[in-house]
Design goal:
Largest sheet: 4 strands, antiparallel
Strand content: 5-15%
Order of helices and strands: HEEHHHHEEEEEEHHEHEHHEEHH
Shape: rod-shaped
Helix content: 40-55%
Distance between the termini: 32 Å
Number of helices: 12
Length: 557
């Protein structure tokens, strides 16, 4: 028959003290980190010590095996890997639409705010200045007003285009910043992988280090769409090697981190931007295995993808949300508005006749609008190269800038010299035209004004644009504003839908992994009472031992 060790009960109670003490420590750690970003609540996983004696057949009941108390098997995290993956997938998509909405909100502010209001007003003022009495004798005041309103229209077009250029430049800088952020996060994850691997080599999880890594993975998923996993020996719960990839290429492979950098790429797919002649495109310096140098980064979601799309996309299909416009699209639409104004006004103005006070006398063949750096002096030649005009480089023709008398207001040549064979007492080259002045008329200005009534304006541009139907000028401007609104509303709708879905997953994840203070207070009381009870067991055992040691065998002494 086996004999129970004398101090066996004390050992059992001591394990109860240790487990309860550890439980209090873990509860305190949870409470202290209740507001720590990325923290996952922890819990003790306890198990009983097996009995020390060897079991035998037909053991008497009074010799039944008694366990040796309890001990902490593992300090576990309460985390759902499925919810983590679902959250990061949703986060990538939400990151895309959030970044897109943010960029488009700025564009909407330009086209529906003060800048576009000024553009609409200046376009209207310009045509109002052309709406004069065709029989009104020419006056310096009319010419001055026309040139000033035209200059105001040009200034507003230039300003709005410049704002779009600056936004495109800002997006390019953001591309570089986000690429740098990816590198920083990858390096931190690789460092944490090494620390976690070393800590977990004995089979115990590095919970707080894993929380830091998980938080970095969460943040990376907002920037780009990712895949990740952890490899280890079969049956090994901890101590595996973590990897993470973008577009099938390893950014992190255990303690090795890949690197990305931005290289300058030509703007062949981008509308001309004087502030941004080349753009930043992220490519691999090397992946985590040292391969793929110079390969492009393949991404489909996240803030980086949205930033690049906004900066580069010049396509739009209002029936297909996957073909969404970026800044270049709206820049090109603004360019087409400027081109239509230049083309249509020049066509009429070029056929009209200047004042007799113009340098060289009354003559035709003068352009009204031109563009910066242009050498064109012929309306037909400029029309053939109208794609060179942008809202950023549109200018008044130098002849108009030099002399107001070069505004071709008259429909016929003005001849003042009676000795000239073309002279007519009524002031007209054509004797069938009855005029009372030798200063011509404003009929050509009226023809210029009629451009506002045209709804069939077209532009012939190089491929892939080809023939572009502008229609009416004001209708086209309204169409640009409508495109901005439709694009932004689409983006907001997707953002709202993804935001709800992401929040739902985040709440589910928080309900599993987050610290619940009510639950922790319950655990605190539980461990407190367990600790006191274990201490009371030790006291009882001590009293029993005192009887055994100090009081047995003393009767009759």
């Amino acid at each position: 028959m086996s004999v129970r060790p004398t101090f066996f009960g004390l050992e059992i109670a001591k394990t109860g003290l240790f487990v309860s003490q550890k439980g209090l420590d873990v509860t305190g750690h949870n409470v202290a980190n209740a507001d720590t970003e990325g923290y996952t609540r922890q819990r003790l996983v306890n198990t009983a010590y097996e009995p020390y004696s060897v079991p035998t057949l037909l053991r008497p009941v009074d010799q039944a095996l008694v366990g040796g108390g309890a001990h902490v098997m593992i300090l576990d995290q309460i985390r759902d890997q499925f919810l983590d993956r679902q959250y990061r997938t949703e986060s990538s998509t939400l990151g895309y639409w959030s970044a897109r909405t943010q960029g488009l909100t700025y564009v909407e502010g330009l086209f529906e705010g003060e800048e576009t209001a000024n553009l609409t007003e200046s376009l209207n003022s310009f045509f109002t200045a052309l709406n004069v009495d065709s029989n009104q004798p020419e006056s310096g005041a009319f010419r001055t007003n026309l040139r000033e309103t035209a200059q105001t229209l040009i200034t507003d077009l230039n300003l709005l285009y410049e704002r779009l250029e600056q936004q495109q430049l800002a997006l390019d800088k953001t591309t570089e910043i986000l690429t740098s952020n990816i590198n920083d996060i990858a390096a931190q994850i690789a460092d944490l992988n090494g620390a976690i691997y070393r800590y977990e080599i004995d089979g115990q999880p590095a919970n707080d280090l894993r929380d830091k890594r998980n938080l970095l993975v969460d943040k990376l998923s907002e920037i780009v769409d990712i895949e990740y996993g952890e490899t280890g020996d079969p049956g090994q719960a901890f101590g595996g090697k973590f990897w993470l990839s973008i577009g099938g290429v390893n950014l992190v492979n255990h303690i090795s981190a890949g690197e990305l950098r931005c290289v300058s790429a030509g703007n062949t797919n981008i509308v001309a931007n004087e502030l941004l002649t080349e753009v930043n495109m992220p490519v691999w310096v090397a992946d985590a295995n040292g391969g793929n140098p110079g390969a492009g980064l393949d991404i489909k979601e996240g803030k980086l993808k949205a930033t690049i799309d906004l900066r580069d996309s010049a396509e739009f299909d209002d029936a297909d949300a996957t073909i969404s416009p970026g800044i270049p699209y709206f820049m090109e639409q603004l360019n087409n508005l400027a081109r239509a104004v230049v083309q249509e006004i020049n066509d009429v103005h070029y056929s009209g006749w200047t004042s007799s006070n113009a340098p060289g006398g009354s003559h035709d063949g003068v352009l009204f609008f031109n563009f910066e750096g242009s050498t064109y002096t012929d309306a037909t030649a400029l029309k053939a190269s109208i794609h060179e005009v942008t809202a950023g480089n549109i200018r008044l023709d130098q002849a108009i800038m030099d002399d107001l008398n070069n505004i071709a207001a008259s429909e016929y040549k003005i001849v003042l010299d009676p000795s000239d064979p073309a002279y007519n007492p009524n002031g007209a080259v054509d004797p069938n035209i009855d005029k009372t002045t030798h200063e011509g008329n404003q009929v050509n200005v009226a023809k210029m004004y009629s451009v506002i009534q045209s709804n069939s304006i077209t532009l012939t541009l190089p491929l892939p644009s080809g023939t572009v139907s502008v229609g009416g000028l004001f209708d086209f401007l309204d169409g640009i504003i409508n495109d901005v609104a439709v694009t932004l509303n689409t983006s907001k709708s997707f953002e709202d839908a993804r935001s709800v879905q992401t929040l739902a997953v985040a709440n589910q994840r928080e309900s599993v992994s987050g610290v619940n203070l009510d639950e922790e207070m319950t655990n605190l009381i539980k461990y407190q009472h367990a600790y006191g009870s274990a201490a009371r067991v030790i006291t009882a055992m001590d009293e029993a031992l005192d009887v055994l040691i100090n009081k047995m065998g003393v009767v009759g002494r």
